[in-house]
Amino acid sequence: MAANLRSIVGQHICTRARALLQGSSLSDLQCLGTQKRTYLPGVAPQETSVLAKYGGRNTVTLMTGDGVGPELLSHVQEIFRYAGAPIDFEVVEINASTNTPEDMENALLSVQRNGVALKGNIETKFDDPSFKSMNVALRTSLGLFASIVKCKSIPGLNLRHNDVDCILIRENTEGEYRQLEHENVPGVVESLKIITAEKSKKIAKFAFEYAEHYKRKKVTAIHKANIMKLGDGLFLESCREVAKDYPAIEFNDLIIDNASMQMVSRPSQFDVLCMPNLYGNILSNIAAGLVGGSGVAAGSNFGDEFAVFESGTRNSGRTLKGKNIANPTGMLLAGCDMLDYLGHNQHATMIRESVMTVLSEKQIRTPDIGGSATTLDVVKAIIDDVKPKTLAWKSISEHGAYFQ
Amino acid sequence: MATTLRTLCFGLAKNISLGSSTALKASSLGFQTRCFHQDHPIQQAAAAEPVSGPLGRHTATLVPGDGVGPELMGGVREVFKAAGVPLDFEEMFISEVSPNQSADLDTVVESFMRNKVGLKGILTTPTTFKGGVLETLNMKIRRKLDLFANVVWVRSLPGFQTRHNNLDFIIIREQTEGEYSALEHESVPGVIECLKIVTEKNSMRIAKFAFDYAMRHNRKKVTAVHKANIMKLGDGLFMRCCEEMSKLYPKIEFETMIIDNCCMQLVSNPYQFDVMVMPNLYGNIVDNLAAGLVGGAGVVPGESYSSSVAVFEQGARHAFAEAVGKDIANPTATLLASCNMLRHMHLEHHARIIEDTVLKVVKGGKIRTKDMGGYSSTSDYIKEVIHCDLRLSGPPSGRGADGGARTRDRRVPQNKKISRLQARASDLGWNSNPRQKGQCRYQDGNACSPVVANPPQIITDLFDADSISSPAHGLKSIKNLEITQL
Asked: Residue ranges of the Isopropylmalate dehydrogenase-like domain (chain A) (predicted)?
């Protein structure tokens, strides 16, 4: 009898223990994104093991970078504050002058801790061969394999094309950027471009998932397989193979030279583009140029675990430094993408709308997109637009009324 | 150039938009904003201007809890109303001891999940087992919400003398597993096994939380507390996880300490601690011990976090059921917790106003509840907070902090004059930013930072007489209360 009872009790305990071990760490209500990791913005991983997210507030690494980076990032902070975005920034100072292994290590650790970073571009000196690009180092060591540049025409800007709306997705870690160069014989330099099936498939899958998630219609693979039949051929083949899994999305491919021409003559035909590293670099600069230059496009980099957000074209804007004329739009939109990624969609939408209102309706623009306003004017206008949407001011007047 | 311009612009905007009492603060902030890389000026500025979420108003769940909870929460509501906080409460009563009036557990959990933020009183847990489920209601809520981390920031209140003053350290406790697994059984009659569960996943998570918390608040050291010399596997795992996590944070010093030694150190030299991280039961004990060091359960706020939900409550969990209806409970802890909640929701402005006022009332020493050695009632305290609040944040009355305020005249309602002075002092001081450049967050007589070296002296001068001279009767009542409350 007693043994019987004991075994029943024991069973009960065993099931409880199992339930505890399996279920205690994550409640049923919020475990989305833990089973199947997805890289897409808006479906950010919920695990605190990756993100420093507690009680709904995220800590985010802020890498200052060179040129106008520090200025623009401080504006972003200011606007986030006014928008009440639940973000705390951990500022890591990193730029071309702090090029020591420790600085690099610190920056990397910080991103590893927080999972997400907002970054100004770091300059690369190209005259010194021993100087490895810190941007590239960051991308490879964090495993940020995909880079996204969003180019969308801002209504009201007086530009050649007003119907650009494309997403450029670029393989970020291999190809021409492996930094494998050597001089076999004096006067002969070999520069290795590496293409692997694994990474090509990964980026293609990423592009298709992105297209599916954002309800895009078409994915275009860009390559030069007519010349590099093996290397780019492999990339193209991988894309084709992945495309079979996504029958709802149209797939085609274009050769890079033709793609560049099409991009400047009829950009509206492009939707989502999927490219190896160097082509992606060139084409995203072209596309960014179409919508208003490097100050307007937002960029982001995704890896399996980490995400880094930056301006779309990776210029540091050294010449604009301290002149108060840099365009904050690109960095701000990148910040909004970051908010989306972290699940703060409300704040992201609010800031994005304010940015568009200021640029299109109020027409307060920096010189690079045909205006005459300073960076500060634009930021101030955005803040003025954001403020009433948060309405805390109203409660202050209520406070006054309470005592009268 | 650009940054200077920006500074000017924002500095000016702040000066214009603020009352004269905070103008000093604003201009000094404007100056600081210039050095962008110095980490915090932006967050510091956040206190100067009110900001809220996109919808304008927030909603938070309110669980009043057992014992004096409902009374204290009523006080919080009153204060919030007076301070014009754009916050609505979704109140639901849940209790283990009066199950008939209790709301459904799932409803409460759903409310917390939806609002992401909540204020919670203490739920009493009966010590006797009458059959049924072993897991307590508190644990059920914690598990369902996955509130894995509990933070108690132990700080001495300025002007309130206890055995140790100027304490400032943080206790972080894992609170979903360990001894609280509610897995107990009788294997043989007369022999009970009680399972303590330690998992790598949860240990890593709490370790990461502790280090992240330390980073965010500019702390220097994390101490992992354990009993790995006895429980070599269980606590050993916890300790190893902390060690491993510390490698990601090279700037933060890491050390381990055994729980028994830790308790001794806490009562003999608590100043050595900065951030402490520990498993469930040790955390519970140390929370209470540390709360006792700075004045008891009535003055220490606490908070619990999951990745998406934050629940704010008292640091040491006592429902104080003996005091129900007697109007003697100390609302300090609940009010400070509610301020932490506001700050968490980006309502820094309101949090600042209320926290300033509460600390001012404590420091003023005239209105104190019994456990702090005074004779005032809960409602007096709340009333005082509301009226001080008016003085601090309302339109400038024109009565400045002139020399007259320094003379100690008992017949003059001192608080008015003091509040001006103190507003000035707090402009320079403790609240705006934790531990920047090593200063204490609560400035007390002992000024740790060069910035606050001057004003506190004036204030201690003014207050010493009032705050220390609590008569013997008051002291006795403290003792009695401590016994009943703890």
From this structure: 59-382
User: Helices marked H in A250-344 — which ranges?
Assistant: 256-265, 277-291, 329-341
Q: How far apart are the first and last CA of chain B?
A: 59
Could you tell me whether strands A87-92 and A57-63 are parallel, antiparallel, or unpaired per DSSP bridges?
parallel
CB within 8 Å of B237: residues ≥ 6 apart: B198, B199, B200, B203
Return the closest-CA partner of residue B333 out of B152, B80, B118.
Answer: B152
Say yes or no to pLDDT of A5 above 70: no
Other beta carbons within 10 Å of B255: 12
In 3D space, the residue among A238, A144, A147 whose CA is nearest the CA of residue A200 turns out to be: A238
Rounded distance between C-alpha atoms, residue B80 and residue B58, angstroms? 13
Q: Is B86 on the interface with A (CB under 8 A)?
A: yes
CATH label, A1-143+297-404, candidates 3.40.50.1970, 3.40.718.10, 3.40.50.620, 3.40.50.300: 3.40.718.10
Above 50 in pLDDT, residue B366? Answer: yes
Question: Which segments within B10-162 are labelled E, that is strand?
Answer: 58-63, 87-91, 117-120, 149-155
User: CA of A27 to nearest chain B CA: how many angstroms apart?
Assistant: 5
Torsion over CA: B368, B369, B375, B380 (sign):
positive
- For residues A252 and A221, give the distance between their C-alpha atoms in angstroms, rounded to a whole number: 6
Q: Which of A124, A85, A40 is nearest to A341 (CA)?
A: A40
DSSP for B300-314 reads -EEEEE-SS-EEEEE
Q: Which two tokens stand for residue B477?
A: 């009542």
Q: Which of B46, B84, B250 lies nearest to residue A109, judging by beta carbons?
A: B250
| pLDDT at residue A237 in the model | 92
Please say whether the beta carbons of A358 and A308 come within 8 A.
no
Domain boundaries, chain B: 56-125+134-145+318-409, 163-184+192-294, 417-485
Chain B residues in contact with A58 by the CB 8 A cut-off are none
May I ask the CATH class of domain B163-184+192-294?
A: alpha beta
Q: Find chain A residues with C-beta within 8 A of B205's C-beta.
A: 25, 48-49
pLDDT digits (tens, 9 = 90+) for B263-320: 999 999 999 999 999 999 999 999 999 999 998 888 999 999 998 899 999 988 888 8
Q: Which residues of A are less than 8 Å from B146 in CB distance?
A: 25-27, 30
Decide: A213 and A340 in contact? Cβ < 8 Å.
no
Residue B204, SS3?
helix
Q: For the complex shown, is ipTM > 0.95?
A: no
Instruction: Name which of A109, A324, A350 is nearest B2 (Cβ-Cβ).
Output: A324
pLDDT tens-digit series, residues B109-153: 999 988 889 999 998 888 887 777 888 888 889 999 999 999 999
pLDDT tens column, B1-49: 444 434 443 433 333 333 333 333 333 333 333 233 333 333 344 444 5
For chain A, residues classed under CATH 3.40.718.10 are 1-143+297-404, 160-290
CATH number assigned to the domain with residue range A160-290, chosen from the 4 options 2.40.110.10, 3.30.1300.10, 3.40.50.300, 3.40.718.10: 3.40.718.10
pLDDT bin (cut points 50, 70, 90) of residue B170 is: very high
- DSSP letters for A338-394: HHHHTT-HHHHHHHHHHHHIIIIIS----GGGT----HHHHHHHHHHHHHHHH-HHH
Q: Which residue among B5, B145, B346 sits closest to A84, beta carbon to beta carbon?
A: B346
With CA atoms as reference, report the closest residue to A166 among A275, A245, A255, A242.
Answer: A275
Evaluated on CA atoms B89, B44, B155, B180, the torsion sign reads positive
Dihedral pair phi/psi, residue B410, rounded to 5°: -70, -30
| Radius of gyration for the alpha carbons in chain A, expressed in angstroms and rounded | 24
What is the separation of C-alpha A125 from the centre of its chain, rounded to a whole number of angstroms?
Answer: 24
How many alpha carbons fall within 13 Å on the CB side of residue A358?
29
